[in-house]
Write a structure and sequence with these properties.
Number of helices: 26
Largest sheet: 8 strands, mixed
Structural class: alpha+beta
Bound molecules: 4'-deoxy-4'-aminopyridoxal-5'-phosphate
Strand content: 15-25%
Oligomer: single chain
Shape: flat
Length: 959
């Protein structure tokens, strides 16, 4: 094999051939006639032909390629096609039986055209898409494993085996010195990384150009790309098998520079699931990926110099530099560990070094110290009500432990909430890779073991620990002026005062890391935690203290839930739900400490973990909680508050535990009071899970669902009147109409003015009662009104309300007239053991107090108007956003296809993408295509801007 610069001066200008000449070639050689459309290509000239008999690609080869090479490409396609039909293009024979025809001195081929869009055209590739792409490429690589051809040993510039030579040959084509230097350094590092493994890498015929240009995708029903074909066999050659995986990983990793590694990891995961990679291949992959990025960037520059007008080339070059920059920022050791982890292998094979420092070597305080962990995780009980963002509160926690004679320790491997800055587009770094030892400012710090100073930074030192293969990073202290070798016990400096803006009080951050790492960041994102933790071992031996967090492995909660909780109790975001362990105001936090804007929680109406609600519950739990047959004052006080919020003649209250129970009781009241049994409701609308309320969905003979008053209110009213008439005529007039005054179930559809009034009139004329289900839409959420029925200008006979009533605590109410309650009481009585318990009532009162004190209904109006403006703009901009429903802070963004079909799958996928961007939102409605937007009422305009921004980003760049 040639290894000297075989590429210097190698020009690959695409052959110049006009469309007419190409059309003639297609007709004369292959008997195909049709419309010709030029296709983008690097080195060949390609045309898509739309012919009556099908679609083809006419390929006019670059003169640089020999007939044997073209034959190699054709045979490779045939070979793969025989094993995997439909996935790769197939060559077609010319009239004379030859697969390579001659047209005007050019070598011309015809291949089948495969449908699909290049993966490159999708701005966002979800993790499953990347895995699928990896699998597809691996299937083709697997099929090529049994392919041989005499021309396979070609020397191509794209062969990563020659990356070093290519980079030397092409470096001069890079006009920018900074870029040239970036490429040079990246290539050198990659070459060093590859060198130990080259002899172990499997060699076979590979596709060689498995970029996201050449992976084609169809759209799945959700509109996500579904990789389905691999085209362009122009670079087929014998090379390293792992290169096909690397090339794809390189090409997909420029979309979001901070997630380049996670994207590559998904590709590797997919590839490995089809063609298992060996230890050597996994070890070489990080360097292969970078090497490929270098030759893409340099090769692109070379090509740009030859073809300054080629848009395809220019676009590719800029992208390649972005990719190279992102990839060079990833420590190769980390990439290696992450790839191994993704393949189910131990992330780092080396056994932990034995470190035996003298007790208390790092600081005197650690000798015979009793370590006390400071829990900084989302499940901490030491920090409430957002106190993890408050330096003063954190200092108090630490001081308390210190006063008790312990050395407070921030744990290694802990997934932390303490670095919370609210929802963000990217996954935050929350996993602690070292240990924090909280020591008083000025405490003397010494070298625990002999070593060498690698770097002294501002308030930190990086030491190489002698003969251990490990590095030690100590931060949070003022280093003395030291350099070179240090002996165990040498003074390093003194613990520093916290920096301005630092949340945690004075502490030493002590972190070990394998010597392959140049930098030891203190925190890692959860998605890379196992790789990082494998490279940054537990510093316990160094400290002589237990410092590791003892969190259960990721996935335990889900597994336990699946095992012991009945399957019909479904999860949001199944099958990969986030584990949510804390709520505060309008935010939810997952177990790794990532914050999400909660746009779904009408339950937590005043915000999560509201201190006043919590205090009311705790106080009353300490005092008394019993069943509701005792006389205690809270029940009357809560009922009074509800009545004062309700118009006449709604003046008495039943207290129960849930919206379903409230609906069930409302139905019972109506039946007992009217002596009738039948129920009117709107089709497909949910009112609860009890046997009776659930019947609005199953519609047995005594339930009469009427078409919903949207989109045709007149038709719905007509049907309602006819149904009432029919029931009366049949001698079974309805007991009641049960419906939501604003249709929350449909995503917040507001019936037109007068609609509900006319419906109520029709029911009442037949002697029926009107039940308003305010479980979702009531309690101030609409902004303009406390109750949704007020917005509709009606007064129901019975109101059910829940969810918001307890801000998550189970308390619900049925509010009705004295006549109805008394009439029911003459026939039956009601006892719900803990419905309206002392705790429930105190919670209920506290929620109403907060609503009032914080003027949350007014906030719902103001912020709701802003939400309407922002989301209204999305409806204007994006065809899939069909309509915005609702008022105040009960909104629904309806998603639909152009033909009017509900965009059910897309809605689900969009919600998944929104989760990645830090927003919790879910679909609702009969078509599950309306994004329900009903956040806690304490949300701000800024939150709404964040929501609108992430939605716009998702709708624009895909999901
Ligand atoms: N009515 C409506 C309109 C609802 O949306 C719900 C719950 N989603 C219920 C009643 C039942 O309430 P709960 O879940 O508290 O039983």
């Amino acid at each position: 094999m040639k290894t000297a610069n075989p590429f210097a001066g190698h020009e690959l200008r695409p052959p110049q051939l006009t469309a007419e000449e190409a059309a003639t070639a297609a007709r004369v050689c292959f008997g195909v006639e049709g419309e010709l459309l030029p296709l983008d290509s690097h080195q060949d000239r390609n045309f898509r032909i739309e012919a009556p008999g099908g679609r083809y690609v006419l390929k006019i080869a670059n003169d640089a390629f020999t007939p044997a090479e073209l034959d190699l490409q054709n045979r490779a396609m045939e070979h793969v096609g025989a094993e995997l039909p439909g996935i790769v293009p197939q060559p077609l024979a010319a009239g004379d039986g030859r697969y390579i025809a001659d047209a005007a001195g050019r070598r011309v081929r015809l291949v089948t055209y495969l449908d699909g869009e290049p993966l490159r055209d999708f701005d966002h590739l979800a993790p499953p898409v990347l895995r699928d792409a990896g699998r597809l490429v691996a299937r083709v690589a697997g099929a090529l494993g049994s392919f041989e051809h005499p021309a396979a040993d070609r020397v191509l510039q794209w062969d990563v085996r020659h990356a070093h030579d290519v980079s030397s040959a092409f470096a001069s084509a890079v006009p920018d010195a900074g870029r040239r230097e970036l490429a040079r350094r990246a290539m050198e590092r990659a070459a060093r990384g590859l060198e130990p493994f080259t002899s172990e890498l499997r060699v076979q015929v590979i596709h060689g150009d498995t970029t996201d240009w050449n992976v084609l995708a169809r759209r799945d029903p959700a509109g996500r790309p579904l990789p389905c074909a691999l085209i362009d066999f122009g670079d087929v050659m014998r090379s390293w098998l792992a290169a096909d995986c690397a090339v794809l990983a390189t090409s997909v990793s420029g979309r979001n520079p901070v997630r380049s590694l996670q994207e590559a990891v998904e590709v590797v995961r997919g590839f490995h699931s089809v063609v298992p990679l060996t230890d050597a291949e996994l070890a070489a992959l990080p360097a292969l990926i970078v090497a490929r990025a270098v030759i893409s960037a340099l090769g692109g520059e070379h090509q740009r110099a030859l073809e300054p007008a080629n848009r395809y080339v220019a676009r590719g070059v800029e992208l390649s530099w972005g990719i190279l920059r992102a990839l060079t920022a990833i420590p190769p050791a980390l990439a290696h560990a992450a790839f191994r982890d993704a393949c189910g292998l131990p992330a780092h094979g080396r056994p932990p070094a034995r470190l035996r420092p003298a007790p208390g070597a790092l600081a005197d305080e650690l000798e015979r110290a009793r370590p006390a962990p400071v829990d900084l995780s989302p499940q901490t009980d030491a920090l409430e009500a957002g106190a993890w963002r408050d330096a003063g509160a954190l200092t108090e926690v630490v001081e308390r432990l210190r006063l008790a004679g312990a050395v407070p320790v921030g744990r290694y491997g802990e997934r932390r909430i303490v670095h919370d800055t609210g929802p963000g587009l990217d996954e935050p770094s929350t996993v602690h890779l070292g240990a924090d030892i909280f020591l008083p400012e000025g405490t003397v710090t010494r070298a625990p073991l002999p070593g060498r100073v690698l770097r002294a930074g501002d308030q930190e030192l990086l030491l190489e620990l002698r003969d251990s293969g490990l590095r030690l990073r100590v931060a949070g202290f003022v280093p003395r002026d030291i350099d070179g070798e240090v002996a165990a016990g040498d003074e390093l400096g003194a613990v520093a005062a916290p920096r301005a803006g630092q949340r945690l009080p004075a502490h030493l951050h002590v972190q070990l890391g394998v010597e392959e790492l140049d930098e030891l960041p203190g925190l890692a994102p959860a998605s890379l935690a196992s790789a990082w933790l494998a490279l940054c071992p537990d510093p316990a031996p160094l400290l002589g203290l237990e410092v590791a967090a003892t969190a259960e492995p990721v996935g335990t909660a889900l597994e336990r839930r699946r095992r012991f909780v009945a399957s019909p109790q479904r999860l949001y975001y199944a099958p990969k739900p986030p584990q949510i362990e804390r709520g505060w105001r309008q935010w939810l936090y997952d177990v790794a400490g990532r914050a999400y804007l909660d746009v779904i929680n009408n339950v937590a109406i005043v915000g999560h973990s509201h201190p006043m609600v919590e205090a009311a519950a705790a106080r009353q739990l300490r005092r008394l909680n019993t069943n509701s047959r005792f006389l205690y004052d809270a029940m009357g006080r809560f009922a009074e508050r509800l009545v004062r919020l309700s118009p006449d003649p709604l003046e008495v209250v039943f207290l129960v535990n849930s919206g379903s129970e409230a609906g069930d009781l409302a139905l019972r009241l109506a039946r007992v009071v009217t002596g009738r049994h039948d129920l009117l409701c709107f089709e497909g609308c949910y009112h609860g899970w009890t046997a009776a309320t659930n019947e609005t969905l199953s519609a047995p003979p005594w339930v009469h669902p009427v078409t919903r008053p949207h989109p045709d209110p007149e038709g719905s009213l007509r049907e309602l009147a006819e149904t009432v008439d029919r029931l009366v005529a049949a001698g079974r007039p309805p007991a009641a109409l049960l419906c939501e005054p604003v249709l929350g179930n449909l995503g917040g559809v507001v019936p037109p003015a007068g609609c509900l009034d006319r419906a109520y009139a029709a029911v009442r004329a037949a002697g029926g009662l009107c039940i308003a289900d305010e479980v979702q839409v009531g309690y101030g959420r609409l902004g303009s009104h406390f109750w949704a029925f007020e917005q509709q200008g009606v007064v129901p006979d019975i109101v059910t309300v829940a969810k918001a009533t307890g801000n998550g605590h189970p308390v619900a109410a049925v509010i009705t007239t004295r006549d109805i309650a008394d009439s029911f009481g003459r026939a039956e009585d009601l006892f719900s053991s803990v419905g309206g318990s002392p705790v429930s009532c105190e919670v209920g009162i506290a929620v109403l107090d907060v609503l009032e004190e914080e003027r949350l209904q007014e906030n719902a109006r103001k912020v709701g108007d802003h939400l309407s403006d922002r989301l209204g703009a999305l409806v204007e901009e994006f065809p899939i956003a069909r309509a915005l429903h609702g008022i105040g802070l009960y909104r629904g963004l309806e998603l639909g296809h152009e033909d009017g079909r509900p965009a059910t799958e897309a809605a689900r996928a969009i919600c998944e993408r929104m989760l990645e961007l830090g927003v919790i939102v879910q679909p609702t409605g009969p078509g599950a295509n309306v994004l329900k937007l009903k956040p806690p009422l304490c949300v701000t305009k800024r939150d709404v801007d964040y929501l609108a921004g992430t939605l716009a980003e998702t709708l624009k760049n895909g999901w």
